[in-house]
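hi support,

uploading two proteins for the ticket. first:
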Amino acid sequence: MALALSSAACAANAIPASPGATNASSPGPTDTASQVPSDGPSPTASPDATGVLFTVATRGGHCRDGPCGTTVVIDRDGRVHYAAKPPNELGTLSPELLATLNAEIAATDWTELVSHRFNGECPTAYDGQEIVFEFATADGVQHIASCEVEVDYDSALFAAVAEAVGAFMPLPIE
């Protein structure tokens, strides 16, 4: 189920449909690189019953106004929004998709996942984008950057992430 979506963070108005998500409004302007999470854990991600479940950020590439970057936040209640200043509401995930995401995040062997190191050339080297995922787990925030970890986008976890986020943010997944 590998998706081939290009660096469409520059074209934030193109939102593909997804059966597991409801679009509340059209997206605002593309975030700037300053709103992309740092290389460390996100201070907003926590394993609490409320708050952030996970974030997906794209960074790098080249847009008209400088580097491209967008961060989408999925909260534990299913709310989806940009990390940028309001208006940033994008919609809400279906309860079924939210349950799938929670189950996949809980079932993931994070040590195994990060043991597959990325050995290629990071797409940011040629105006492409890196994808950075941060998942709030019982063991803390799990930081997965596509230029550090060889991400298996066909795995159940990343298939669910792509379904959830794909309705709101095109992912540069090859």
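and the second one:
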Amino acid sequence: MVCGGSDERQLDIDASPDRVMAVVADIEHYPEWVGSMRSAKILTTESGKAKTVRMVLHHPLIKDDYVLGYHWEPNAVRWHLIEAKLLRVMEGSYRLQPTDGGTAVTYTLTVDLNLPMIGMFERKAEQTIINGALKGLKRRVES
């Protein structure tokens, strides 16, 4: 059971789904546009895309070194936690939908920690991670 809950947000980006997905797939450059990400190293690939990635997160409420597994689809990517020190669950996705003016990006995230944390702080951490990821993605793609 996931105690931390999950959240979903959507944001429109003025670029094609292919352009957005190219930035999403460029995982090793996440630290340049995801404020709380200190490092991202691709460990394994499949069909030219990241399959497993080690990341170091330094968020004001969550700091961890963890490995995610990725599953790629034409206009979506999903990830799940393989190993971590603090995180018990980290699952999420980017789903891209073409629009007349670009791309609607839907980001989902579920986080649960291996230590007690007041629910409102855990939700705040989720919300700031999601907001930061979406805003950073928009800035990176549209620049």
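thanks. also noticed: The beta strands are 6-13, 37-46, 49-58, 63-73, 76-84, 87-99, 102-113.
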